[in-house]
Amino acid sequence: MGAPIELESVLPIRDPQNYKVHLAHWNGEDHPLDAFVRDRNDWELWNRWRPGRNRFNRQYIFSLIDFYLESDIWLFGGIYKVVSRSPDSYSHSYRVQLDRASARFVGRLKVHFKHPYRERSVKLENVYERMAVSELLREPYSGERFPGYENINHDFGLLETVFRSNRPDWKAALENVKGVYVIADKRNGRKYVGSAYGDFGIWARWGCYIGTGHGWNDELTKLIREEGIEYARKNFRLSLLEYRPTRTDDRVIIERENYWKEALLSRGPFGYNKN
To answer: Cross-referenced InterPro entries, in alphabetical order (predicted)?
Structure first.
């Protein structure tokens, strides 16, 4: 391997003492990478959030997003000028403005930075020389690449970013297959087994879950109406158990669905299936 490419050779900063680095990672409810892909306004809110102390107490915020798919890799989220601050803690009390000069690298520049601690903000001058360019993407990152049918075992929140961004690789793969899937509730271990057949592929069926949180299944509908779609984002994981060509007889899919309901005990106290 060649020598690492220092970050400052691609993204030079003249006065690093005017910057605080925002190391955005899982906050207990959401991943910043998912927020970035889902909606850039959602991502900006991460940079406007003030906790109990004045974390971003310098003129600029140098934002990095934990690229949790790879170890020690961060996605460049932009440089924000702090336009104003209010003393209100635990609110979006920073007003920020995205720096246009570096905007072309937002979502494209992947940075290698090994950070042994879990601070969410550090002084740029203390870490700048330890940052190296890992990769420069052709286009801004728009979600995980389709991993193959056998490897779909994804949290609702991650799939939501895939469906909201209408990723063509996922869509092309899933809209042309029927199949059987399971939704696991990580909070209580209960499962729901479902299927996609007829004129609807997996893409259309799962798109209904993404839009509603429950896909109009009786028990899931009750749950989401009580808890809200945030419950699905925090607790649901979807896995594809079997997939078949669209020409497969619907009866085969239904038989396999019933098999998996029995195998995973998804009826009764261990699951959300009613029949």
So the answer is: GIY-YIG_endonuc_sf
Provide the token pair at 230.
């945030």
Angle (deg, nearest 10), helices 156-164 and 202-212: 110
Distances (CA, A) of 187 to 215, 232, 237: 19, 10, 11
Taking Cα atoms as reference points, which of 176, 167, 166 lies closest to residue 147?
Answer: 167
Q: In whole angstroms, give the CA distance from residue 177 to residue 243.
A: 6
pLDDT digits (tens, 9 = 90+) for 107-156: 999 999 998 767 889 999 999 999 999 999 999 998 889 999 999 999 99
Which domains does the chain show, CATH number per domain? 5-136 (no CATH), 149-270 (3.40.1440.10)
Which residues are within 8 A (CB) of 161 and not within 5 positions of it... i.e. 6 or more apart?
34, 37, 38, 143
Express each pLDDT in 65-100 by its tens digit. 999 889 999 999 999 999 999 888 889 999 999 999
Paired strand residues for 245: 177
